Amino acid sequence: MFDSxxxxxxxxxxxxxxxxxxxxxxxxxxxxxSFRIRAHRxxxxxxxxxxxxxxTVITFVSGSIGAGVAFGGxxxxxxxxxxxxxxxxxxxxxIAMGAGVPFGMGYVGYGVVILLGMGCLFLxxxxxxxxxxxxxxxxxxxxxxxxxxxPYADSFRDIFARYLKCAEPCGVKTTGMGSMFRLSxxxxxxxxxxxxxxxxxxxxxxxxxxxSLLPYVEAGNEL
Length: 223
Hints:
Elements: H1 12-33, H2 41-61, H3 65-78, H4 87-104, H5 108-127, H6 134-138, E1 139-147, H7 157-163, E2 164-175, E3 180-189, H8 195-205, E4 211-215, H9 216-219
Antiparallel strand pairs: 1-3, 1-4, 2-3
């Protein structure tokens, strides 16, 4: 089971056996990941196909340096056509790609064990509370849009003093063709129950323009 199914030359039966094992285990892996990752179903379809895709590439470029370099360049171009995903999504893709290597070398038993074993391990580690930090969970990302006529440096200082433990400016960005500014702050509420009152006071100060309050851990990479 854990010996390579490939001989000196790959036969059609050997390749299709690899394909069936890679696709079936990939589908099960995508199903496992769906319990942890919130994404469109197409993401899980892609995760299920990646082991077979990588395995096919490894199978047919084995021993050919030129073909390997060409395929490597083609895969590198995909990075510039796709948006950066969450840490969970990136981990799911890397696991699927890593499991595709043994599939491509004919070690289908190792490929199945690595793919499904890492999927189960990923779910188990995600469920454990070892890496949760309460301080990070309290942090919020506040985005406030203000008109260009408003001197934003000190406009919200009194509101922040009443409702927040701390407020750290994270950046300023122009929006609305330069007619408005979008301010970003890393904040901690004194009392989460005062969130609506806090937002209402900011609305009266910024002319009822857009305000967003998001978990900082999830939205911090969008700054």
